[in-house]
């Protein structure tokens, strides 16, 4: 009979996520993970496989806890235009609300994986889902007369995705509200959407 796991999976995945988020995939050692997860290297291997497999699980955990929750929250907004603005505002505020300036684990990993074809392909799939969300909600804003139709939903979604990725990279070296909000507002103005609130508010 297989022995039951003696750890809470959500807790140890959160610990692994924090470890990779702070150090990156390459620089994070198995020893770092073992200390943060409070597990032996052998236990980590038995439960999750090698470091790459654990990273994928930790990244999935991060995406579910951050991006997917944020998308679900704003998609319930009665105004799709306001939802897009709220989403970008949350990106700016959460970028500024991190004293370690870690940015986004998904974006950091995409930059780091430039030499890793398998990892690059997996991350590209996640970014495509991100783009699909923007395309879907921007099309809804255009249909409601809340956004310009001078830019197609496809191109607008690409602009929003590029803006978010840029903000998440910029915040790591220049966590300046005017800089990040200015980048967001430029994209919103281009698409005929309302600007960020003047002082910024962070949604729960």
Automatic annotation (TrEMBL):
Assigned keywords, A-Z: DNA-binding, Transcription, Transcription regulation
InterPro entries attached to this UniProt entry: Homeodomain-like_sf, HTH_TetR, Tet_transcr_reg_TetR-rel_C_sf, TetR_C
One Pfam family per UniProt: TetR_C_13
Superkingdom assignment: Bacteria
Domain HTH tetR-type span(s) in chain numbering: 6-66
Residue ranges of DNA binding: 29-48
Protein name per Swiss-Prot or TrEMBL: TetR/AcrR family transcriptional repressor of nem operon
